[in-house]
# Entry
Amino acid sequence: MTQPITPETVSAILRDPNSPLYPTQITVFCDHCGTEATGDYMVSGEMTSAQRLAVAREYLVANEGWEHDEYGDDFCPEHASTGTTR
Ligand SMILES: [Zn+2]
# Structure
């Protein structure tokens, strides 16, 4: 059974004392132009800030066309895969 995540589902997760996850706002910056992508992501209290950022990156890369390169830089959809931004 697949259902979209509704506010009710999020509320259920938040009420579940066994769930370590909670939503937090994370911002990723384009290292070329400074464009920001801010969103709410489910993280756990045990995750480091680097791990939380990785959650946001993973979402943006998979869904929004962002790119995270081997140098640790992030690029917005406009500057992703240009290869000549450095
Ligand atoms: Zn950019």
The chain has a mean pLDDT of 88. The helical segments are 7-15, 49-63.
